[in-house]
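Loading example: each entry is read as three labelled lines plus one structure line.
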Amino acid sequence: MSHAPLAPACAAVLRRDLTLAWRRRGDIAMPVLYALIVTTLFPFALGPEDALLQRIAGGAVLVTMLLAMLLALDAMFRSDIEDGSLEQLMLSPQPLALMMGMKILAHWITTALPLIIIAPLLAGMLHLPAAVMPVLIYALLLATPLLSLLGAVLVALTAGSRRSGMLLALMLLPLCVPVVIFAAGAVAAAQQGLPWLAPIAWLGAALAMALVLAPLACAAALRIALDA
Amino acid sequence: MSAFSWDSFIAMGGYAAYVWPAYAVFFFVLIADYLSPVLRRRRDLRELRARMARQSARAQRAPSSP
Amino acid sequence: MANWIPLWVHKLSSPPNFYRFAGTLRPWALVLALLLGAVALYGGLVLAPADYQQGDAYRIIFIHVPCAWMGLFIYGVMAVASFISLVWRIKLAEVVAMESAPIGAAFTFITLVTGSLWGKPMWGTWWTWDARLTSELVLLFLYLGVIGLYHSFEDRRQGARAAAFLAIIGIINVPIVHFSVNWWNTLHQGSTVRILGPSKMSSEMLWPLLTMMVATKFYYIASLFGRVRTDLLSMESGKDWVRQIAAQESQR
């Protein structure tokens, strides 16, 4: 028996997930719409003063992104579990961790990337100074993959359980506290004219570690949650 | 603090409203924590006894059935 | 040479043996916890003098600090038991890990409530986003996540294994959270009120505190053993030894 080499297998998983996501384009738009709605609500709740909105803009955009991603996280493996393709993936000769990494990448591309693209718009709605915008984008570019990776491990753990929606949020909160702190810290520092490279570097270090460890943990969690 | 008096002990130097609720929470939570497995155990054993009674009743009704 | 130790551990980890072992040890642990707790409370509430800065309000420390320690200690125990249960698949370790979680959550909850009851007269507010308080809150969420995941599975052993994995992820997360929250606190200085500087404790205040710490450890043993016994009974409810216990208790 000869099995397919690694690179084509990875590409196949990635292409399959992206194709599936593209067929259901409406689902991709949902988190974006959600983020837009939440951001619109902030000025109504807090009043339209520029100074106040400017102060909270960075944090508000980050938290909105986090919630929008959480919304999409629940569905990460659901259809794959329902149609049994995840079990096929677990039985395949290729290392499961790598396949999981590809699935997480596909998920990040379909949910986080559109969010990052509209992030300047959202931040602009809250009057974030244009000079801070690049820092916000850097922070998001590092924080969202981190959240996808951490979230994937937790989604894998809940794969065999009855309910997961609220539970997932409860489990993710402790893990995303450092991510939110450093991402928002970088934006806040940039807004005050302070050096913002240190928190970004911390995020980068965490992302590098998560890139290696999270797919492995995700594969292990999936094996625990799905086989009795 | 030479002589012990109940009144000053209860008053806690004016902080009674904070000190005593704290101790009340401490004891309440721990007592609840301690009692919950006791209650669970009682319920589990009662269910088990009911199941055993059902099984023995069935065995008596049809002793030869496989 | 010391061959009997693994043998003894192996024997002890079988459910009926541990059930009996825990049954004999539990009353002793409880009695010790109550005795030491009573001594500590007497020392803390009656013998120790009032603090020159905080008056009598500081007496909350005699439950607050031991509970905070227990919250962390039990998380450590839970993570070690989780690790053992995942690596060697020992049923007893799973049960110990999963039954530790509610006790640890209870201690963490007490820490938060007593902390805020202490903070009100001292800081003038029920809650401040102080590094330690925030870490403690995150710890409570970690506990709740483990408990929630455990109960969300139909199959209990599968749930225990998934929750054990989460507990291990959590213990890696605890120092990261602590570090990041500390950093966050220095970033937003001015929002925290700090009256309690690092201060030396007199021995009259220290010994009740340490005694209480030992008492809570014994309480943990007593509560854990009670919970583990209950869990073992319901997990093995089809087995003969459990049926015997059920039959014996109905006679009484």
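Chain C has eight helices and no strands.
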